[in-house]
Specification:
alpha/beta, Nucleotidyltransferase, domain 5, 5-stranded mixed beta sheet, 41% helix, ATPase_NBD
Length: 339
């Protein structure tokens, strides 16, 4: 069966939609011999858009998703009648959107194709591990870990997803960009208050980005996208770490350790999904101290784990999700995946 699939990745600071050929019998084999069905082809085109914002009504992710579907139809008009599956991964979709199941059903009508909506960790997992089993922590604006044992012998992804964290920047997201930014600003303010002068470099960086400390509360507390604003400062933290700032380096290392703890916890004792562990997301590029700390902590907690490099990103995972839903190889799971 010919046709195309749409993959949509909705994050805290940006969003993307891609189109790729649909393959009714796609399969891939990883370097260690594990096979996963449904892996999508490389995208033919990609469009970008803004990230989500959180307000009194919750997340605007559903509106962003619909805008991207419309943009895709306008950008690729020759392909819209041949869409076989739509796969969506969105940050905060489970806890901040009213009825995700209804959103998935409405997209079937709007896109005239099978549709699946998932938390962003699931599409990051599919991208990072090529649809195979294991545990993944995603460090972007937020942080979430997820594990799955992989497809069954018939190639079905059963509802065995197990997630850890993803509680948002107020309650969790340990190790994510907003967490790093917030920890760094706390260190900067301790220096400003004369409590601990080790944060002098971070105070200087924060002043360059946000101005004088007295203005910071008004900049952050009044904004619906404060998590993204905090995560932007993580870029400066990475820069300070690269310049040798010990406080910035220590913050990134602790972010890596937090990410590893979440991944191993997601694998759990009963899932046995932590034999293959990886770190995904934009914050992975923050520096070697973060990645090495992740590896070391994962191996300390699970000595037999294989800490691997991610094969792909969340957008490739969204395309894989679209391919799987087009193949009807998915089973929904409350709070994680809606089909």
């Amino acid at each position: 069966m010919s046709g195309f699939v749409l993959g949509i990745d909705i994050g805290g600071t940006g969003s993307r939609v891609a189109i790729a050929p649909f393959d009714a019998n796609a399969a891939s084999t990883t370097a260690d011999g594990a096979t996963a069905d449904g892996v999508a082809a490389e995208p033919l085109g990609v469009l970008t858009g803004p990230g989500v914002s959180i307000g009194a009504e919750g997340s605007n992710a559903p509106q962003q998703i619909r805008r991207l579907v419309v943009a895709a139809k306008e950008a690729w008009p020759d392909h819209v009648e041949s869409i076989r599956g739509v796969g969506i991964g969105a940050t905060g979709i489970a806890s901040l959107s009213a009825d995700v199941g209804e959103l998935a059903r409405s997209l079937v009508v709007e896109a005239k194709a099978e549709a699946a909506v998932a938390i962003d960790a699931l599409t990051a997992h599919l991208g990072a591990l090529s649809g195979c089993g294991g545990a993944v922590t995603v460090l972007g604006t937020g942080a979430i870990a997820i594990a799955h044992p992989g497809p069954d012998p018939q190639g079905m992804l059963l509802p065995k997803w197990r997630r850890v964290d993803g509680w948002g920047h107020l309650f969790g997201d340990r190790g994510g960009g907003a967490w790093v930014g917030r920890q760094a600003l706390e260190a900067a303010l301790k220096c400003h208050d004369g409590v601990d002068d080790r944060g002098a470099g971070l105070l200087e960086a924060a002043r360059q980005r946000f101005g004088e400390p007295g203005t910071w509360p008004a900049q952050f507390y009044t904004r619906s996208d404060r998590a993204g604003l905090l995560a932007e400062f993580a870029v400066d933290v990475a820069g300070r770490a690269g310049a040798g700032d010990p406080v910035a380096s220590a913050l990134l290392a602790e972010a890596g350790r937090e990410a590893a703890r979440s991944a191993i916890a997601a694998g759990g004792q009963g899932v046995d999904a932590a034999s293959r562990v990886t770190l995904s997301g934009g914050l992975r590029r923050a520096g070697e101290s973060l990645v090495e700390a992740f590896r070391a902590e994962a191996l300390r907690l699970r000595p037999g784990a294989a800490v691997v490099e991610p094969a792909g990103d969340p957008l490739s995972g969204a395309l894989t999700l679209a391919n799987l839903v087009g193949q009807r190889r998915l089973r929904p799971q409350p709070g994680v995946l809606w089909v």
